[in-house]
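FW: tagging you since you asked about this chain on Friday. Here's the raw sequence from the shared folder, copied in full. Didn't touch anything.
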Amino acid sequence: MNINTAEISLSELQIDAYIEELGSKQALIRQAAIAQLQQFLDHEKVVRALTAHSLVESDSECRRDLEQILKLARSSADSVVPTEGVADSAAEIVRLWFSADTRQLSALTRRARRLPKDEQSGIFCEIVDRLPEPARILPALDFSPPALAAETVLARLENLLTADSILLKIRATSLLTRIKPVRLIKYLPGLLMHKNVQVRLPAIKALHALSRSEAVRLLNELISSSDLGRQMSAFTFLFVLPFEDTSDILIRIIESGNLPFNLDQAIRYLIYNNPDSKFFKRLTISWLLHGKRMTALKSYCELAAHSLVVAGLTQKTQQELIDEALISAREFIARHTSRRDDRRPAVAHEVPGDLKNHDLASLSGLEKMTSADEERLLAICKGLVEPSELAIAIRLIGRHKLVSTPFCDWLENLVEHESPEIVLKVIETLQQTGKSRLLAHLPVLVFHADAAVAESSLKVYAAFWPDKFIEKLKLWLKDSNSKVREVASKGLLEIEFLQALDLLIACFRTCTSPDLIKFYSPVLLLNPDRLSVYKLNNLAGRTSGEKRKVLAGLAESINAELSELGRDTSSSGVSSLISEANLREQWLIILARIQKITYDNQSLDFGDLIQTKAVTFALVSILVLALLVFIARFELSAPTGKPIPVAVPETVYSYDLGQRPTEITDDKIARSWDYQLPEPATPPEALYQALSLEEITAVYEELIAEAGSSPEILPSAGDMIRLEAEFNR
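HL: got it, structure written out here
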C-alpha cells in the first residue's frame, strides 16, 4: 500500500481509527473509542460521528459517556457566555459555570485561565466539591497547569480516580501523570486492573515514569490478549510509551498479518517518524522469515530505510541500507539455524523442448479448453508416466482451473509420486483446484524426505487449516522422535509469534527434559521479544533444578539479542521522582503488588478490583469452611479418633486442549501433556484440636507439603492476583 507518509496527520489518523472502532461489536472497545474522541470535539466530523452513533448505541455505559461528551460539543453559541461584559472574578466564573449551557464551558474555561493560578485552583475545587455531572468537570481539567498543581487540586484529582465516570478516571490519571505521578502510587494496582482498557493505558503510562520495566511488561501482556480485537485496539497502545519501548510490540503486530487499513496507516506513520537503525535490522529479519506470507513486510522495510535516509542518519542510499541489512539478517538467522539444517535440494526434472507426446503438445498451445479438450486431456493424463509429461499435464490443469472430480482424483493419486518435483506441482495445483484433497495428506507430507516438499506442505497446512495445524503442533512438540520435533520447530515459524510462544510455554511448563527446551530455543531467539523474557522468567520462578537453569539461561540469551538490537530491558529501579523516604517504602510495597499483576489469558471485561483484605477474608473463610466440613466428615466416619486415608479417584486433566476432565486408567494411552493430581495425605492429629486462624493456615500448608505437590500444580501468586481481580469490587 503506497501512501504519502510525510503528509499523514497524527490527529486525523487517530480520529479515523477511533471512529472506525465505534462500530466494534465489543462494548469496551466502543467505550474506549468514545473516551478518546472526547479530545477531538473541535472536529466537526467527530461530533457528527458521535451524534450518529448515539442513535444506535445499545450499551448503557457507552450511552452515558456519549451523553456527557455531546454536551461539550462546541457550537456557534459556545462563545457567547452571559454577562460577558462583567469583569471576571472567581465568584462570577463559578456562578456562570453552573448556570451556563455546557457547550459554553469551553469559552468560560478560556476566561478562567486569565485569572491568577490561586483563583483558578479555588474555582476548580468548588466545581468538583459540588459534585456536578462529568460534563461540567471535564472542561475545568483544562485550567492552567500551575493552577492544577496546587495541593488542594491534587487532592481532588485523586478523588476523581475513584469516580464512576470512565472519562473522569482517564483524564485525572493523565493529568496526575504529567503534574505529580507519585500521587498515583497507591491507586496504580486498581487502575492497572480496571475492566476498561482505556483506564489501564494512562495507568501504564504513569507506571512508566516510576518503573519502566514493569510498564513495558504490562503493555506487552495487554496487547497480547486476543479477547477484544487486539489489532483494532493496538493503535492506541502504540502511542502510550516511547517508540523504543514499543518497537518490538510493533514487530509483533506486523507479523500477525491482515492488518486493517487504519492500523496499517498507523504503523507506517510510526516507522516514518521514528527512524531507528536497530528497528530496521529487526524488521529485515522478520521480512526474511515471514515475507513470503506477509508481502507488506517488504514495503515496511523500504519505508524504515527511507526514514533513515530522510532523517540524515546515514550517508548510504536506501538500496544500500537494504542490501546490507539483508546480509546481516541472513547471518543472524544462520547463527540460530545452520547447525540444525539438514535440508537437501529438491530433484529437478527438465522438460524437453521437443515433446514426443504430440497430443499433449497440441493441448499445451490452447488458450481456452472446450469440454471435448478437457475429456481428451483427462484420457491423456491416465496414460502418462514420464515426469516431464506429468509436469506439463499438471501445469495445464492448474492454468485452466480444471476442478472437476476426475482431474482432482488424478492429481491426488500423484501425491505419493517418487518425484519430489511432481509432488510439489501437485501441491501447488491442488491449492487452486481442490485444496480439500490435500488435507488428509499434509500431516504425512510435512515429513517428506525432500526438504522442498516438506516445507511447502508445512506452509500450506498452516495457511489453510491453522486450527488443525496448531492441534498437530501440540502433539509434535513433545514427540520423542527427533524428526517430528524438527518439523514442529519449523512449523512454529509458520504461525503467529504469540501463538508459537504460548505453545512453547505450555510445552516447557509440563516437560521434564531440559534438552527439549534447548531444542526449541532457536525459535524464540529468532524472534527476540520482551514478552518471551517475561514468560520464561515467570516459568523459571515456578520450577527448580536444571530445568530452571535452562529457562533462565534462555531468557538471558533473548535479552542479549534484544540488547544487540538496541532494546534495553533493564529495570529502572526506584524512580528519581520518589524522593521522600516514607514514599519510597510505600512504592516498594506497591511495586511488589504490581509485579504480581498479569494480563495473561485474561479477558478485559472482568469485575473491578476491590480491597485486598476482602479477598483475603473470603479465601480464609473458604479455607476454614472446607476444613470444618472435612473434620466433621472425618469424626463421623472415625469415632475411635483414628485417621482414615482419603481415597480420591485418579483423574486426568487436559488443560492444553481445553477439554473437560477425562478419566484415563491406562498409562499407555495417557498423553504427554496430561498429569495426575496427587493423592492427598492423611490429615494429621492436629486437626482434632480447636485451632486458631494461624494454626489452620499452618496445617493447610503442611497438608500441601505432605501431598507432594509441585509448584507447577499449586496456585501461584499470579493466580491469586487474578482471583482478586475477579472478586474485588
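FW: The first helix runs from residue 10 to 21.
HL: agreed, and Strands lie at 652-653, 675-676.
FW: great, closing this out.
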